[in-house]
């Protein structure tokens, strides 16, 4: 193995990871064909975790749901960045005939930014997400990842979920 992260090493890492995921999801389906395989990959293909492209997702034969977690509030990104990564996930899912799940952050949300959580949920569904997930339950109340106002953040998430369920 070279001492630096060359293009060949990046390709090897990504191929190894996706080969493993293909085997794993196939085995799950063999065990119980009704189980649902969900894969959540971080946005921004830095390669830090072995992934520099979402294209190999298209070859995962036993995957049911593709997911990503574009945490724009905590990451000090723009809402356009969030929309861009939701759309990228939707594009991959459509090409692979998968459902799409978008994770909306409920960690480290600053006080008075709780409505951005609501906005994220609504926009992801408007764009076509099949499912919304959140990290974390009750806005990580009491932990170091807690939102600055966890009660308001949690209440805002609940309201967003109520809204999308009523449509």
* Helix-residue proportion: 40-55%
User: Mean pLDDT, nearest integer?
Assistant: 94
Radius of gyration: 17 Å
CATH superfamily: Glycosidases
Domain count: the total is: 1
The arrangement of helices and strands along the chain is HEEHEHEH
Write the CATH architecture name. Answer: Alpha-Beta Barrel
In order across it, which strands form the biggest sheet? 1-2-3-4
The poorly predicted ranges are none
Instruction: Summarize the biggest pleated sheet.
Output: 4 strands, parallel
CATH topology: TIM Barrel
Q: Identify the CATH class.
A: Alpha Beta
3D shape? globular
Distance between the termini: 53 Å
Number of helices: 4
How many runs of DSSP E, i.e. beta strands? 4
Estimated structural class: alpha/beta
Give the DSSP E fraction (strand runs of 2 or more residues): 5-15%
């Amino acid at each position: 193995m070279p001492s630096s992260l060359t293009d060949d090493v990046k390709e090897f890492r990504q191929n190894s990871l996706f080969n493993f995921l293909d085997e794993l999801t196939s085995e799950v389906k063999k065990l119980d064909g009704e189980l649902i395989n969900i894969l959540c990959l971080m946005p921004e293909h830095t390669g830090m975790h072995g992934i520099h492209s979402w294209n190999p997702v298209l070859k995962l034969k036993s995957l049911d749901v593709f997911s990503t977690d574009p945490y724009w509030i905590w990451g000090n990104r723009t809402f356009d960045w969030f929309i861009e990564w939701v759309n990228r996930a939707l594009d991959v899912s459509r090409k692979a005939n998968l459902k799409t799940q978008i994770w909306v952050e409920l960690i480290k949300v600053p006080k008075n930014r709780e409505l951005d959580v609501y906005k994220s949920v609504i926009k992801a569904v408007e764009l076509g997400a099949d499912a919304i997930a959140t990290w974390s339950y009750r806005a990580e109340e009491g932990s170091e990842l807690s939102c600055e106002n966890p009660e308001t953040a949690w209440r805002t998430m609940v309201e967003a979920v109520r809204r999308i369920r009523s449509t």
